[in-house]
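dude i think i finally got it to work??
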Amino acid sequence: MKRKTSILVLLACLLTVGFFSSSAFAFAGSEIGYQVRDVGGQMKEMVGNGVEAGGTGTISAFNVDLGDELKARGSIQYRIHSENKGWSDWANEGQTIGDDTNGIQAIRMKLTGQLPYYYEIFYRVHVPGVGWSGWGNNGTPAGSEGFGRNISILQIYIAPAGKLPPGGTLDNVFNQTKWAWPVPGYTGIASDFGPRWGTYHDGIDIPAPAGTPIVSCKNGVVKMANVAGGLGNCVCVQNDSGENVYYAHMSRFGCKVNDRVQRGQVIGFVGTTGHSDGNHLHIEIYNAQDSLTSPWTYLR
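look at this
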């Protein structure tokens, strides 16, 4: 009787293991591999999930391979931005993207098929003299577009849905592409974008007490920090994603030209310089194609 019971228990265990092995989609770090090539060089050794690929050179090409279990559920696509060519078309798993001469400045990646239901894809790049970008996720860009800053290291990480990459937080992973509100704590609008008093108002006005900190809406580089006619003391930040954002009527500056600023970093203080009827921030945005755009396109 005891022998029969033991056999039944063993069979039950085997059936249970078999069921979960066939129905569950087990994650394994070895299921993804990628390799990079520097300008004028050869492909480097392939690395596994989450391992940094590259070094001190300028990466000009890379490819990504998925294991059979991942490929059974979908694929991965990726594209690159280079200074001379802009954004490439999407490449598919296993394809090498890039060339021998143009450094890569930014990347995008996304999972296809059923993979997004089970996994998250994260990626980031390192730029010499600047540091690591934020983590890109599900097609958002990682890196800088159009500033002549080429990447030297690439890191890709696939994780089960709901997990974050090593050192990742909800803020620096999922919210890095969300715009920060430029005057934290003050959300009222004194004057909106559009027709106003028989003319056209090119931005929105956010009233706040004199000296209230103004923060950069996104990561970028300060292109202007000086007096600009009716805009008074004005800072222009060129975002890594290409937009030019003007922060006007400041009482004083909190940054200087060519400073690298991060999303949420203080760049100045509310004032009423230039053509202004009171203390407020006037924010004006030009998209990546240099066309005036409603701030609500980005700030909602």
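Residues 2-23 form the longest helix (22 residues).
im so relieved honestly
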